[in-house]
Amino acid sequence: MSTADRNTVAHRGEAVVRVDDLSVAYRSGGADVTVVRGVSFEAAAGETVAVVGESGSGKSTVAGTLLGHLRHGSRVTGGRVEVAGRDVLSLDARGLRDLRAADIALVGQNAGNALTPSMRVGRQIEESLLPLGLTRGERRERARTLAAKVGLPDPDGIVRRYPHQLSGGQQQRVAIAMALAAEPRVLVLDEPTTALDVVTQARVLDLVAGLSDELGLTSVLVSHDLGVVARMADRVVVMREGEVVESADTGTLFTDPRHAYTRHLLASVPRVRDRGLAEVGEDGARTVRTRRPVPDEAPEVVSVRDVTIDYGPHRAVDGVTLGLRRGEVLALVGESGSGKSTLAWSLAGLRPPTSGSMRLLADTEDGSGEGDLANGARQRPLDVRRRIQLAFQNADTSLNPRRLVREAVRRPLRFFGLADRSEADARANALIRDVALDPALADRLPEQLSGGQRQRVGIARALAGDPRVVVADEVTTALDVSVQASVLALLDDLRAQRDLAFVFISHDLAVVRGIADRVAVMREGRVVEEGPVDAVFNGPNHPYTSRLMAAVLEPEPARGGGTAPVPETEGPPTGSVAESADGGSDPDWIDLGGGHRIRRWDPDGPASAA
What we know:
Helices cover 34% and strands 27% of the residues. The protein contains 23 helices and 25 strands. The strands form 5 sheets. The chain has a 9-stranded mixed sheet, sandwiched between helices. It is globular. Belongs to the ABC transporter superfamily.
């Protein structure tokens, strides 16, 4: 549906969701702290309304009240919430069960956590059908029908699998099938695609949009991804610090935002066409920081040659050859299961390669620090081990919840023998300042910090070993757009100040365009395209790279419904035979010059059709 068509849906028909002057508070220190203040909006039958804002804006709290969910210690202090004609806030426990069984359903952010790991997915879908009073046989048949409706392959077989045997996108489709089981009138989508790669995200969003049209669903979408909002929503409600600051049709809000906060949010979103990182001033003015070039004489610090990595009979990485120079950001991109994280974790010593070579190369005259990276971390000398460090996707789970921030940063200093007890605290405070945090936060626990602050602590901990290479695995995926922008700027500054090399893993191609110097595109364990970031994004491209770019959502509904422009890819591009790692010819690759190379493909094969 086009943006214009979607916007005409607004105000048609009966309002199925009504939120009127809603206020929510929780008790802290004997006093009420208001987290939602005077929020009002409606969603008509068949309409999708997006509620957007940064962490702490209250958007998830508002969405929770639609289902009668309130966090522990919270209470509604005013207003009214109505779903399908029912006053949600006046319902007792039985009334809420009936509401959730018949009228409203939730699709959450991480289906992998929501599904029961010890129960087959078919049984879990069947459980969602219990309120309908069907027989066991009817529930089983209906579960298969729902699995097919949400586009799961081989429905008869997949219902017999366990959640861990499904990909992230398949798990999310199971969650959608469970939500649709009782044919609700309202669907609440709380960050439904945050953890998915761009191709899987596009499939899930198309699925939700198609089912919404088919079933006439009213949807409330909670998201910090403004590209998703541009693609899906008819109207947008922008929240900040518990209040609605702007509400408008999607097209109007994205093309003519009125509130300064809305303009700041939109300006903070990276675009695929940016040739550097976006920087947003206090007035919302947007500029793009020019990418710092890597000097031609920068030495190579990591060499990967013909590496394969197996998980039992499954080959996760298949014959990858790459190099990484000092001060360079190499981005690994591809769908879930492409092998990018497996390769990066192997570099960090978490999974030794099955074959091939990985080496940390000396970049000093005395040759110190060179070592074999084919060994696991425990088998590496400490001086080699500390030179490659990991910054994880989710600082919430990678930081010990019982350990103070100072202790988390101080521990690597002591472990690697870089500071004795008397100087460790001072070094830890310096690292905390280096990641633009107030040293006063050093005495707090992780739960007392915001998501962006926790991510900076994780980066400080990775820097404590004085590494040459940092593996940054989806470090900005779960962050709000403005916090993401500040973390990316921090990484770029640290790269320049410390002459660090980064292996940057991301499924957000707009972020990759802004921060990376080179890109390696991986598919089914193999690199299919590699080159300088501008060359790869300008094309010509491997068909799989074009497919990834076609799935990128830009926060601009006027540009093809939010989809980014895609380089043209027809037949294999013209180019010379590339050189192999040993300097010979490699007929499997097309050399386009300037370090840009593309793996050859069969125009009639699956790669071109993908």
